[in-house]
Amino acid sequence: MATTSMTTTSRALALVLLSSCCLLVAVDAAYAKKPNLSKNDFLSCLAAGIPARQLYAKGSPSYGSVLTSTIRNLRYLSSKTCNPLYIVTPTDVKHIQVAVSCGRRHNVRIRVRSGGHDYEGLSYRSEIPEPFAIVDLVNMRNVTVDGKARTAWVESGAQIGELYYGISKASPTLAFPAGVCPTIGVGGHFSGGGFGMLLRKFGLASDNVLDVKVVDANGKVQDRKSMGEDYLWAVRGGGGSSFGIVVSWKLRLLPVPATVTVIQMPKMVNEGAVDLLTKWQSLAPTFPEDLMIRVMAQAQKAVFEGLYLGTCDALLPLVTSRFPELGVNRSHCNEMSWVQSIAFIHLGKNATVKDILNRTSSIRAFGKYKSDYVTQPLSKATWDTIYKDWFSKPGSGIMIMDPYGATISKPGEADTPFPHRKGMLYNIQYITFWFGEGAPAEAPIKWIRDFYAFMEPYVTKNPRQAYVNYRDLDLGVNAVEAGANVSCYQVGKVWGEKYFKGNFERLARTKAKVDPTDFFRNEQSIPPLLA
Fold it and tell me: Which residues form the signal peptide (predicted)?
């Protein structure tokens, strides 16, 4: 299938569309509750079914503050960023249906934002020169817990800290296996799999989704009964925003003990960090499922951070017999409830449980992220090189490594869209931060791309796998087929099989069934594989 070539005419069209995307000035409810626009206009269409106070047009007084409220990566808080024409902040599923229907009618694509943590900002910005709007789910954050049934319904605009807090209020001995950062939005996180310190005990967040309510590309509300198993399979780990707008999720809650134990063991290179890390690679995936020890490596240090579902008395014999070199003793144990561990691990020892309700990110920086999977341990010599050569370079960042094994590795590769299961030792997240536009970005971006190239011999191959929630446009972007106005499947395979392996084809066939015109489209949305 051929892709669109950029002729002189199409360049001109792209510039017109880009101008309309980035420069249009309109009004919002702050000073015009009834916009004086044609009945055929997209905004008028929205206003017919959504209260004006929930609509924000570019150039209106409140637009900027609403747009930037959950931009987590300052790379995209720039006048050069192509932002939406309109922001819709629904409070009801009917408002989402209106937004989708109006978008289809007026050829305005819809992107959806829950927490704003998409690493490439694709939930609120576009690299594609076409007009778009975003549905920002900030006002749809309800959490309803049934402690007796061990289930919960959570709306996609909730942050996982709000979910964790709601669960803890219902029962201190119930939990849910999602991410470490409390400000992550539920919608995007669950859509791509979602994992944290409970991954070895309970697997992914998406593995524990029982039902969903989703507005499809036709503006209809679907659930498990109506959508069919392929559709449900796709939204539980197939990446956010490709198949519709998931409004809410029904979750299986899982039992945890009243007391858990957190350890944090920083080790310098001159204290044996390289030897410890070399051993950790093969050891951590074999621990009992109640123990998770991840590693954060940077500069001349490695921090071994663990969560054990039990008391210090039970943890010490286990870790001292299996990993005596780490040197864990009673003074390193921090006993607490599971929900307290969320605050402790991400926010520090002085954080309270209520702090996980804070919707403001603790990191305000520019960033670039990449990911890898490892099936064979790196040699001590390789780790020596990483610390000596790579962590000493200008712009160097951090490696966060999460061990797999136990529950996350039990499902088959095709059981869910998330294929990184059996045989995975650990996942790597590469992160580099900087402060300021222009020159300050050069060294960090060069470092992370060069380091990623250096790591190629030591990670998975054919394809080199990546985690979709660690979005990385360096892996490839969609191209629109000439004359078809849908994303090209063959182009999408370049990045898609890195995230999903062989599951990418099933995702694309499902996309063709539920959104054949590719309405929900972005730079790395699933393309429809049409017959």
Answer: 1-32
